[in-house]
């Protein structure tokens, strides 16, 4: 570690005069290279399975069973996608449901999380410890499936509505506490104090000063929440019968569960015809492709907020 | 301390909320019976339940949950059913299909939440019959059967009703179908022909040896002679207490009525020696103990495996594999308590109209028109008749109405397809009649008094069974270890409890 | 009484802000908590709804908890759960922070974005899928590892029955899958640091290393502490798929792969008892709560602002 810091010192110290084009506070090309190699290897290990998954999803099921995973399969096939596309119309409908739930859900989540987190981030809020604990406690204890089901179906009467997919997962104590930490660390007290002296209301401070400064934090929670809604399949399993309201993940997981179940219980379920010929493995991979690609494309949208640094000074003015 | 105060405050909060929930919950029970005046109280006289009872009964709607994929044309067929049912028993049905993989997750929640549904599919493998019957999810139906289910009693093999009793009561109407179960060896016919094997002689695990050897020596290395996954177990002639993943049972060949530890039986010990020998000879996959499933059917690179059968099963297997598969039985067909509960319909304990529900089930199990309507859809739309009882599917069937026939009521009433053997249902009945009845048939074990022990032992079974039962490890070394660990976890206590319950049951059923 | 009212009025703006969220917590989290009573009951269904069923079911005290402690496995599963979690929490923290800092320093921002997207991908894979890939490396006959071993003249290893490798495999996979997700929070936190701090430090001649040490890390400290304290709350829970699917439920590996969640799953397959599963959840929660309360108390003593509550 000592070596590392020493060599860094050297390179950084000698850096400024050398090239004008480089940011004077950047790391040296050597370290940049070392970091690049390390991170690159790790990143490749992460992306490699995906390339594999795409290949497997186009592999012929029998070839897969005979040869195992292979990056250059002998026989290619579209069977897996054909199998999934049998419910093609349904899939488009489900994608629509997922998009609606994800967008509405994320917007509402951001509103609820940021207001709650802002309030408990403020030192002059007398009940902030109580409300912090109120939120935190729910991270550990839950009442289980049945009581939650009763609240949604019998108290709120949300069964078979879009809201049953949104409300139960709209808030999460983890988001609130992360958000609160962002607020306390990135928003200097001085800014708030000066705004107060200028006569701004709490709500005004929240919308005009705190939110703009905390964009990276908001983007983080927005990302987490988007992924959460996108990947959620369990709410629909419990609350939705209407095929027009089934989200994509639920649709795919259901196909998967049915295949698994029928194969496992083949002696009971009289379906010898289906069990052995279902393209199980390749379909599984094709489903990962279908479910992941759209959301992976959405990722760069959030990413720009994590990579660019922010200058709070500019907000201050 | 401050956090103490906070916890206290939370507790108070909780209780206030719980009482709020109570209010909501009970309110709702009343609400959701929505206007259906509790017509369960009306006294339809039993004899009239069949034909003209229609005009004397209040109209009711029955909420029915069935297993299987949701079908596009179900509303259409349901409307047709409702016309008929209104006529017959002045009831309509509202059927919800819940997918295979979801059913066992969703129905327990729906049931525990106290929803007032009327009928649900239940079985030994999905939305488990036994625990739910024990825990009060279903209504005991003996009186209802007597009053409104006479046709069921008439049509059904009586052993179904005996076999599905829990503490002397019936909690569901079994579907009339195959009752016995039977394990068979399956063989890839290609190799049977090639080596001119006489598979009719194969019955025991030991009998397989020369054939496995022939394959191992004569075929390339990628042909697995005995292609089984980790779930494989040598055939054990036992009447299991809690399924074959729990080591307690009664020897089928003895008459003393004693539950024993199967792992200590001589039969198992000798089978384990054999399977160990096979494993070492390379007849099984090397990694069999961790193999969830095996792709043998798809690849065709196998010689033998094992499966549970029913009449004409090999036709179906061959058809789906795309090559011929032949079988040879490991045992005679046997009827266990569990085999009677393969597919049933229960009436919910929260049903507002149990009488009408039973009338509906009665029709479903005896009325040929209704039974085929729910199974195959509408004649002319979903299928066309070739002769009296034989049909051919129309395209609409494949696209919009594929129902799981065995989960819908008396299977023997359904039409057959033209490619089916003509004597299919006769063969099923013959299969049932030829079966041997297990000594504990009709006895259902209640694990509640020893559930701690059962849970611990189940976890140990998962650790030891796959490697021992597939021969992947030396049984002389590992079997005693497994037995010792299970005994520590209370195996003897479970056996004693089982024996006690069985003796009581036996005394009551003399 | 009047004091409280006064206080509430004084804080009315904040109270209005937390109101929607608090209402959600009450309805969706606290109302259902009443169901936890099942842990102490022999749950039966009674006509009249869930509430009736819970109330009328018989009290059984701590009987539903017994199977968690009744065998020798109790020690193993507790040890495994705690050790794996401690390992994953600690190493996960180091990895996430390191990746975030490196990613932030890389000269080529485009590449940095690409890496970051790539690292996020494993998060989308289920453990079942990952277990397939692991299997393609580790299977006895055709696995990559064994082929390499044979190539170098070594004996093949039957990986799925050799316990000694698995703690490393599992920790590695656990870290690998969540690294991208975990580092996002820290990346965002770094992005939120006021650049003028660095500018000032540079003018004072601080090296890059010193900037990281004296600006970046201290700015990340509250987040690191809070996330770690929160993670402690889940110390008795584990990522089920990692410990069940990835080792392919291999019995020989149980000594190093069995954790509380897998043990309970295996034990309850035959009976599926609601009371016992609720009891397990409650046990895990209570231990988590105690740990978090202790940790939070300690953090509070040292640096009040870093406490969770």
Automatic annotation (TrEMBL), chain A:
Ranges that cross the membrane: 30-58, 95-118, 130-150, 162-183, 203-230, 283-302
Top-rank taxon, per record: Bacteria
Gene3D superfamilies tied to this protein: MetI-like
Family per record: Belongs to the binding-protein-dependent transport system permease family.
Pfam family membership, one: BPD_transp_1
Keywords noted in UniProt: Cell membrane, Membrane, Transmembrane, Transmembrane helix, Transport
Protein name: Sugar ABC transporter permease
Species for this entry: Paenibacillus helianthi
Main location: membrane
From TrEMBL, chain B:
Signal sequence extent: 1-24
Domain of life: Bacteria
Keyword Signal: yes
Gene3D superfamilies: Periplasmic binding protein-like II
Name of the protein described by the UniProt record: ABC transporter substrate-binding protein
Organism encoding this protein: Paenibacillus helianthi
InterPro entries: Bact_solute-bd_prot1 (IPR050490), DUF3502 (IPR022627), SBP (IPR006059)
Lineage, opening ranks: Bacteria, Bacillati, Bacillota, Bacilli, Bacillales
Domain DUF3502: from-to ranges: 440-507
Keyword Electron transport applies: no
Keywords: Signal
Region named Disordered: 28-55
Polar residues: compositionally biased ranges: 28-50
From TrEMBL, chain C:
TM region(s), chain numbering: 12-40, 82-102, 114-135, 165-193, 214-236, 281-299
PANTHER family: BLL4140 PROTEIN
Cellular compartments annotated: Cell membrane
Matching InterPro entries: MetI-like (IPR000515), MetI-like_sf (IPR035906), UgpAE/MalFG_permease (IPR050809)
Residue ranges of every copy of the ABC transmembrane type-1 domain listed in the record: 78-295
Membrane topology, from the record: Multi-pass membrane protein
UniProt xrefs under PROSITE patterns: ABC_TM1
SUPFAM superfamilies referenced in this protein's UniProt entry, alphabetically: MetI-like
Organism: Paenibacillus helianthi
Annotated keywords: Cell membrane, Membrane, Transmembrane, Transmembrane helix, Transport
Family label: Belongs to the binding-protein-dependent transport system permease family.
Protein name, UniProt field: Sugar ABC transporter permease
Top-level taxon of origin: Bacteria
Family annotation (CDD domains): TM_PBP2
């Amino acid at each position: 570690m000592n070596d590392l810091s020493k060599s860094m010192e050297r390179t950084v110290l000698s850096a400024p005069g050398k090239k004008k084009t480089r940011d004077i506070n950047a790391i040296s090309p050597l370290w940049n290279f070392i970091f690049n190699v390390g991170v690159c290897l790790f990143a490749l290990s992460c992306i490699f399975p995906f390339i594999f998954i795409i290949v497997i999803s186009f592999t012929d099921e029998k070839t897969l069973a005979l040869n195992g995973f292979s990056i250059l399969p002998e026989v290619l096939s579209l069977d897996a996608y054909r199998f999934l596309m049998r419910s093609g119309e349904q899939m488009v409908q489900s994608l629509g449901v997922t998009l609606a739930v994800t967008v509405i859900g994320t917007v509402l989540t951001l509103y609820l999380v940021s207001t709650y987190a802002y309030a408990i981030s403020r030192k002059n809020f007398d009940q902030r410890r109580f409300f912090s604990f109120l939120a935190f406690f729910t991270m550990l204890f839950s009442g289980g499936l049945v009581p939650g089901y009763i609240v949604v179906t019998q108290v709120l009467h949300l069964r078979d509505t879009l809201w049953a997919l949104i409300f139960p997962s709209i808030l999460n104590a983890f988001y609130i506490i992360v958000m609160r930490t962002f607020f306390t660390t990135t928003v200097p007290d001085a800014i708030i104090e000066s705004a107060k002296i200028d006569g701004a209301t709490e709500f005004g401070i929240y919308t005009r000063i705190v939110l703009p400064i905390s964009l990276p934090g908001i983007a983080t929670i927005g990302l987490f929440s988007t992924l959460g809604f996108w990947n959620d399949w369990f709410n629909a399993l419990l609350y939705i019968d209407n095929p027009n309201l089934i989200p994509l993940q639920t649709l795919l997981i259901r196909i998967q569960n049915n295949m698994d179940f029928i194969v496992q219980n083949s002696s009971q379920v009289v379906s010898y015809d289906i069990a052995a010929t279902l393209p199980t493995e390749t379909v599984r991979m094709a489903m990962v492709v279908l479910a992941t690609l759209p959301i992976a494309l959405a990722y760069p949208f959030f990413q720009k907020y994590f990579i660019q640094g922010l200058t709070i000074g500019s907000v201050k003015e | 301390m401050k956090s103490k105060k906070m916890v206290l405050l939370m507790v108070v909060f909780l209780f206030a909320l719980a009482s709020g929930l109570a209010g909501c919950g009970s309110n709702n029970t009343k609400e959701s019976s929505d206007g259906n005046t509790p017509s369960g109280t009306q006294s339809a006289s039993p004899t009239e339940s069949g034909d003209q009872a229609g005009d004397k009964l209040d109209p009711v709607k029955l909420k029915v949950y069935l297993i299987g994929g949701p079908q596009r044309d179900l509303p259409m067929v349901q409307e047709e059913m409702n016309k008929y049912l209104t006529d017959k028993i002045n009831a309509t049905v509202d059927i919800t299909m819940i997918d295979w993989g979801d059913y066992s997750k969703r129905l327990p929640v729906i049931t525990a939440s106290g929803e007032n549904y009327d009928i649900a599919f239940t079985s030994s493998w999905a939305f488990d019959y036994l625990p739910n019957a024990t825990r009060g999810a279903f209504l005991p139906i003996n009186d209802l059967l007597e009053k409104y289910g006479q046709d069921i009693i008439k049509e059904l093999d009586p052993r179904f009703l005996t076999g599905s009793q829990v503490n002397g009561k019936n909690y569901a109407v079994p579907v009339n179908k195959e009752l016995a179960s039977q394990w068979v060896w399956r063989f890839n016919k290609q190799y049977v022909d090639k080596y001119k094997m006489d598979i009719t002689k194969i019955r025991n695990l030991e009998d397989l040896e020369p054939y496995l050897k022939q394959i191992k020596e004569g075929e390339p290395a990628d042909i697995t002679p005995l292609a089984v996954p980790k779930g494989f177990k040598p055939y054990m002639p036992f009447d299991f207490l809690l399924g074959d993943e729990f080591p307690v049972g009664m020897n089928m060949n003895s008459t003393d009525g004693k539950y024993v530890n199967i792992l200590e039986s001589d039969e198992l010990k000798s089978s384990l020696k054999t399977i160990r020998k096979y494993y070492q000879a390379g007849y099984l996959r090397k990694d069999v103990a961790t193999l969830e499933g095996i792709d043998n059917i798809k690849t065709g690179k196998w010689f033998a495996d094992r499966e549970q059968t029913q009449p004409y099963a090999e036709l179906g297997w061959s058809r789906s594999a795309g090559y011929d598969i032949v079988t040879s039985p490991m045992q005679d067909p046997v009827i266990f308590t569990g085999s009677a509960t393969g597919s049933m319909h229960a009436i919910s304990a929260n049903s507002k109209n149990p009488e009408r529900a039973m009338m509906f089930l009665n029709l479903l199990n005896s009325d040929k028109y209704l039974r085929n309507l729910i199974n195959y859809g509408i004649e002319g739309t979903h299928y066309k008749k070739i002769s009296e009882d034989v049909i051919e599917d129309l395209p609409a069937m494949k696209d919009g109405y594929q129902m799981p026939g065995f989960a819908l009521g008396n299977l023997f009433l359904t039409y057959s397809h033209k490619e089916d053997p003509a004597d299919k249902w006769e063969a099923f009945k013959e299969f049932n009649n030829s079966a041997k009845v297990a000594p504990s048939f009709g006895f259902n074990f209640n694990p509640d008094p020893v559930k701690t022990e059962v849970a611990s032992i189940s976890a140990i079974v998962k650790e030891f069974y796959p490697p021992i039962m597939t021969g992947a490890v030396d049984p002389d070394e590992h079997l005693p270890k497994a037995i010792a660990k299970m005994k520590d976890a209370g195996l003897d206590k479970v056996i004693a409890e089982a024996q006690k319950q069985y003796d009581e049951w036996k005394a009551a059923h003399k | 009484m009047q004091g409280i009212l006064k206080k509430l009025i004084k804080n009315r703006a904040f109270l209005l802000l937390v109101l929607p969220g608090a209402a959600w917590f009450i309805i969706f989290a606290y109302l259902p908590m009443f169901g936890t009573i099942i842990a102490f009951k022999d749950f039966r269904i009674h006509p009249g709804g869930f509430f009736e069923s819970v109330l009328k079911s018989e009290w059984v005290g701590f009987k539903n908890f017994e199977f968690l402690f009744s065998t020798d496995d109790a020690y193993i599963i507790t040890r495994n759960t705690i050790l794996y979690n401690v390992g994953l929490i600690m190493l996960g923290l180091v990895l996430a922070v390191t990746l975030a800092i490196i990613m932030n320093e890389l000269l080529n921002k485009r590449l940095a974005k690409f890496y970051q997207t790539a690292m996020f991908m494993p998060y989308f894979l289920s453990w079942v899928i990952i277990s397939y890939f692991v299997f393609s490396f580790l299977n006895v006959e055709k696995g990559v590892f064994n082929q390499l071993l044979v190539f170098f003249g070594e004996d093949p290893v039957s990986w799925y029955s050799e316990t000694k490798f698995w703690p490393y495999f599992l920790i590695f996979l656990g870290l690998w899958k969540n690294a991208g997700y975990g580092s996002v929070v820290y990346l965002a936190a770094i992005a939120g640091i006021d650049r003028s701090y660095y500018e000032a430090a540079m003018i004072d001649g601080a090296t890059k290393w010193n900037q990281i040490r004296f600006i970046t890390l201290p700015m990340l400290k509250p987040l690191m502490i809070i996330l770690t304290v929160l993670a402690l709350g889940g110390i008795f829970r584990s990522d089920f798929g990692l410990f069940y699917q990835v080792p392919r439920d291999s019995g020989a590996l149980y000594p190093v792969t069995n954790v509380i969640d897998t043990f309970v799953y295996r034990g309850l397959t035959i009976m599926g008892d609601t009371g016992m599963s609720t009891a397990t959840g409650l046990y895990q929660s209570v231990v988590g709560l105690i740990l978090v309360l202790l940790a939070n108390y300690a953090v509070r003593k040292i640096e009040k602002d870093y406490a969770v509550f």
